[in-house]
Amino acid sequence: MSCVAVQSSVTPFQQRNDSQSKLYYFPHNTKMTSSSAETPYEDSLYSNEKAAVARNWEELMDALNAVSVWPQNWDSHGSDAPQWKSVKNAKIWLLKIFELVCFYNLCWCLPAISADEYGNIVCEWWKDNKKLTLDFYESEVEYTKISNIDSNPEFEIEIFSNLPVSGQYTLAKWIFV
Fold first, then answer.
1. 156-162: long-range contacts at Cβ-Cβ below 8 A with a sequence spacing of 24 or more?
2. Which of 143, 145, 104, 101 minimizes the C-alpha distance to 126?
3. Cα–Cα dist 39/145, whole Å
4. What tens digit of pLDDT does each residue of 130-149 get?
5. Could you point out which of 91, 95, 100, 130 has its C-alpha 20 to 30 Å from the C-alpha of 12?
């Protein structure tokens, strides 16, 4: 998976077309418009970056949605089907992390997404000699940071229900820089 870095405070959006302009919708009612006669967004680097961000967000949600419909005993070992509250919690937290990655121009990579035997959603990222795992429970998130995977592993584990933005940024920066 290639890394996408965005040079502005871009957050996930959906692109919609009409006959006169292209509209880029961002969360919190922020909207950018451009008449196709004024600026050909489709030919600009800015447009390519925004399209890449949109594709990465869509790929993330597609992967999460695919896991969310796994049936009971999906692994042939008696595991529970993914819990909808865990999926909802994962979507909320992944949006927060994705927005921070975009806002701070970090390098986003799609995580490996799965479920555990209890139906909780699990996302893992590997970069260089580091691994970040986020386990999404119904109302909490557990993160596990592992440094020096190959030689002398160092672990940091924490469970939280509300992590301040500074803590979210620290996690995102740790794996996505």
1. none
2. 145
3. 44
4. 999 999 999 999 999 999 88
5. 130
